[in-house]
Amino acid sequence: MSIPRVLVIAGSDSGGGAGIQADIKTITMLGGHASTAITAITAQNTVGVQAVHGVPTAMVMAQIDAVAGDIGIDAVKIGMIGSAETALAVAAWLESTRDVPVIFDPVMVATSGGKLADPETVAAFSRLMAIATLVTPNLPELAALAGPGDSDAITARLAARHGCAVLVKGGHDEGAIVTDTLVTPAGEVVRWQHGRVETRHTHGTGCTLASAIAVALAAGIDLPGAIEQARAYVRAALLAAPGLGAGSGPIGHALGGVPAAAMGED
Ligand code: PLP
User: Fold this and answer.
1) What residue owns the CA closest to ligand 1's atom 5?
2) Average pLDDT for the chain
């Protein structure tokens, strides 16, 4: 089989921890080819989002058409979508193609607290959820999408309403054990647990997880297997975080880097 090709539709993070930068590093490390449609440029570091410049919807769609018409796409990963107009245009394009897995990370705020989606954009998320294979909210995003209530019950309702699988990430919860819960549209539940990695450097974990799942699906791995593999990569990258910046820094996508010996150095 040729290299798994993932089209990432997301925003740029100048700090290199999240967004398109995290997506490209993750997909590359896991053996895939990342192509990109950039929806917004953020001026951002580990302590905050200083500015956001949206890319016009027509330019986002031109990037998608350029990739689809030549390189080809085995899976689509959607992160920060930029605007309601872009969300609706991307949804319409996906509705007309419908032939590859779609992972939608419903990005609303950066790890530092900076806003990355306005209320109109969040309202347009339902069109993207309806076309997604998997949606990957963290706990605050789940509450914003599904309202208050018992986490399992509102997740099941969200999955059934939009006909997509939902993976709720437990990293924002408290406690030494992190639980991620997958609920399928039919209501089946699968849980994964691991000990929490104690670090403030968690910037980009959501982007990384979703991209790692997308590249595994693009390679033909089934959904539970893809999630298993993606969680292992995020955990390894958390443990390898280089400790940059005064706030929530990037994780170690290169997992510690290439040893000097492997580069032919003494
Ligand atoms: N997309 C962009 C462009 C971002 O800057 C961020 C966070 O800063 C995210 C997505 C979401 O990041 P995380 O993976 O930490 O949820």
Assistant:
1) 13
2) 94
